[in-house]
Structure formats: C-alpha cells, structure tokens
Write the structure tokens for this entry.
Amino acid sequence: MRAPFILVAVPLQIMFATAAQAVPGGQIDTMPTGRYTCETQGTDTSLVSVHIPEDDFRVRLSSSYSVDGKRGSYLLTGDRLVMTGGPFQGREFQRISESSLRRLNAQGQPGDIICTLGSPRRSEADS
C-alpha cells in the first residue's frame, strides 16, 4: 500500500522544489551592507563626477536601508532593486556590480546616477 503513495509524493516534491526556485525577475538577493555614495557621471567635457549627498543611503541587514535615521526596505531580484518602503520608496535601480547600483528613471531606463558602496571618490571640485 505504500508504493502508490511514494509514486505520487516524489513527483510532487520535485514539482514544488522547482517552483520554489523559479522567481519572476530572477533570484532574490541582498546588497552588501554599508554606506552607498551616489554620484552623477562626468559629462562629455568633464570626466569629474559630482557627489549627490541627498541620494546617499546605508544598506542594512535583512533587505533594509536607512536615510537620515529613517528606515526602509528593498527587494533585489536578479539585477533589479526596488525600494519598497521608507524615504526612498518607489526608487528603482539596476545592479551593475556586486556593490554598485545605477538609478533608473521614471521610464525604467538607466539614468546617470550611480550609487557605490564606500566613500565618495575625490574629485577636482573637492580640492
């Protein structure tokens, strides 16, 4: 009597294991924790980037972030990060490396702001 149960249970386990791994948008992940500094890229006439301090944020544990002491949450699936709660709710980014994000514009296209883990690069304007 056990044989029919095993024949049904094993295929069901395989089916549910496969379904659990398939996530729309890609694998769920988190960003490395720490302070992310945001800058615009240089223009055609200048290679110096410009720091945008009001866009800086700190990634914390458990898919959360903070800005000026206020906390929020984010969801990273594949290379797409969406801030789902908190002060930057609704902002979207494309992950371009392990510790860098490119902000997406309102149309979902890559913009010119890049946020990178670590301190801001020193530019000529800081001298």
Notes: The two ends are 81 Å apart (CA to CA). The chain has one domain: 25-119. Residues 14-20, 120-127 have pLDDT under 50 and may be disordered.
